[in-house]
Amino acid sequence: MTGPVRVETASGLLVGARSSAGEVIEFLGIPYGVAPRGERRFGPADPAAAWSTEREAFGYGNAAIQAPSMLAAFTEPTSEDCLVLNVWAPAAAEKAPVMVWFHGGSFSGGAGSIGWYRGRSLAALGAVVLTVNYRLGPLGYLHLAPFGGERFAGSATAGLSDQALALRWVRDHITAFGGDPDNVTIFGESAGAMSVSLHMGRPDSAGLFHRVIAQSGSALHCSTPEDGEAVAAQVLERLGVDRRRLDALFELPAEAFAEVQADIVPPSSVLALPFAPIVDGHDLPRPPMEAIAAGSASGIDLLCGTNTDEMHLFTLLPLAMGQGRPMSEDGLSRRVERAVAATAEGVGLNGANARGNSPNADDIIARYRSLLPPGADPDHVWSAIGTDLTFRFPMVDFAAAQRPHGPVRTYEFAHRSTGFGGVLGASHSVEIPFVFDNLKAPGADVMLGEMTADRRRLATEISATWVAFANAGDPHASAWPDWPAGHDTAKTMRIDLETRWTAEPSARTRDVWSG
Asked: Which of 44, 188, 265, 451 is most buried, by the most CB atoms less than 10 A from its CB?
């Protein structure tokens, strides 16, 4: 990038950079909220104050406090002073579609500064693109109200509240960058996809966006008050804080919360996320899926999907890297039996198997094995099952809930990685560098393998599709039909080097969970 370029915003004058070709302008590390420190910790953040002098926006701001991880290795320094966002815009934009990205990372890690999320390529296609940092882990999603009462109302969804604050910043500031505040698409992957989906059922987010792209996450991905209370009790115990004296939480260094984060055991055996937004009766007054089914996101265009081999990232890659042991047939049976029990009790995510029936674990294993290459080992079988339970079934139910209230389109990302010896397949997160057309970003080649001409073409096509959806809600000029009224006969766009229509993949396995 070169520079400088100046933009007068509602908060003050910003100085950013211009791309070497001159077609994109870039502003990094813009504050949208006040650092939630001390007594502000766990509460809703206030908007950032305006400034009276020229403010430089050449570098990413701090990432949220988080534990060490693969994602953390790619982030900026961490701090509670992390409520910042980044903007890329066409240099001559005027009422351009706006795309706001919320990063993934299990609600516990990541940042908008990660190279995969750089918005230059999407901006070159005509969109104003933003990436957002928001509170994570215990500082963003700790259900303290059962112990501290009204003072901590909303602590279980502080990260979502940050995201909504960023969207209000977009509403009030984006015109200065050539964006259209009446044409805002929120999009994200994994926890980011869960976030954008949950905003569809969050009353205080209504009117802040107009379209949603959810990549590998849905509005079913949130926790119950009971699970949230159990997690909070673990955190307080590990911090050495008496649940009757929560004032101590305001005095602890922020890093203390990151240090205990990895030790927390999630109560749910299906959604293994200890920190996730809670249906707390306050910020999320009812389960978001119920709200969406009742029309809370009426008129919102939705594009959602999953990857063919989502769980390979979590099940097969660790084995390939020498971590853990291969699963036995007995181990597979026990895991499936636990999954059956959990979903039969209503614990978990998918509406397919939480209907009071009694599916048989052996039948489930046999069905999935029949769909895999001959000789599939237990780890591959469990990965296919986990992909359905954790990602695909929730996505299908999410699409069906929104379908009566707005246009819905779905996809299956099927392009296989050749990295790590091909063990990943089309795993969780491999679509991200294609969506942003950032195949040269650090780590993309490690994740995906060789960047061939075909892959570059695919990235060009996918990024253009996402921008087209953000522009008009129609990603393929009507060639991508709306989701049908009944998802049992639904078709989805299978995205690969040769994109084509295919039957919704969950139709092959959904019935076996019904008993």
From this structure: 188
Task: Determine how β-strand 96-102 pairs with β-strand 128-132.
Answer: parallel
**CA gap 43, 191 in Å, rounded:** 21
Residues 28-80: tens digit of each pLDDT: 999 999 999 999 999 999 999 999 999 999 999 999 999 887 766 667 799 99
Strand (E) positions, 126-245? Answer: 128-132, 179-189, 211-215
* Number of residues assigned to the chain: 515
- DSSP code per residue over 378-402: HHHHHHHHHHIIIIIHHHHHHHHHH
Of 310, 412, 431, 504, the catalytic one is: 310
Helix (DSSP H) and strand (DSSP E) numbers for the chain: 17, 13
CA-based angle 216:221:222, to the nearest 5? 155
Q: Which tokens in the block code for residue 330?
A: 């007995």
- pTM for this prediction: 0.95
Which of 221, 312, 428, 487 does the annotation list as catalytic? 428
User: For the chain, which residues make up each domain, given as ranges?
Assistant: 2-324+393-495
Q: Is 498 one of the catalytic residues? A: no
Q: At what angle do helices 378-387 and 361-371 cross, to 10 degrees?
A: 100
The answer on pLDDT for 166 being more than 60 is yes
Residues 75, 62: Cα–Cα separation, whole Å: 8
Name the token pair of 511. Answer: 């019935």
Instruction: At 451, list the tokens.
Output: 């960047």
Q: How far is CA 354 from the centre of its chain?
A: 24
Q: Is 259 a catalytic residue?
A: no
Distances (CA, A) of 333 to 269, 324, 348, 509: 15, 18, 18, 17
Burial of 480 per CB tally in 10 Å (0-12, 13-18, 19+): buried
Specify whether the CB–CB gap between 362 and 500 falls below 8 A: no
Omega prior to 288 cis, within 30 of 0: no
Tell me the residue type at 317. L
Q: Which residues lie across from 9 on neighbouring strands? A: 12
Selected from 3.40.50.1460, 3.40.50.1820, 3.30.470.20, 3.40.630.30, the CATH number assigned to the domain covering 2-324+393-495 reads 3.40.50.1820
3-state DSSP assignment of residue 40: helix
Mean pLDDT of the chain: 92
What separation in angstroms does the CA of 243 have from each of 117, 224, 232, 436, 462? 39, 20, 9, 44, 49
Residues 171-201 as b/e (b if ≥16 CB within 10 A, e otherwise) read: bebbbbbbbbbebbbbbbbbbbbbbbbbbbb
Residues linked to residue 365 through DSSP beta bridges, in sequence order: none
Q: For the stretch 439-452, what's the b/e string if a residue is b when 16 or more beta carbons lie within 10 angstroms of its beta carbon?
A: bebeebeebbbeee
List the catalytic residue out of 11, 161, 190, 427. Answer: 190
Distance CA 288, CA 285 (A): 8
- In a 3-state reduction of DSSP, which class is residue 141? coil
- Report helix, strand or coil for 201: coil
* 415 catalytically annotated: no
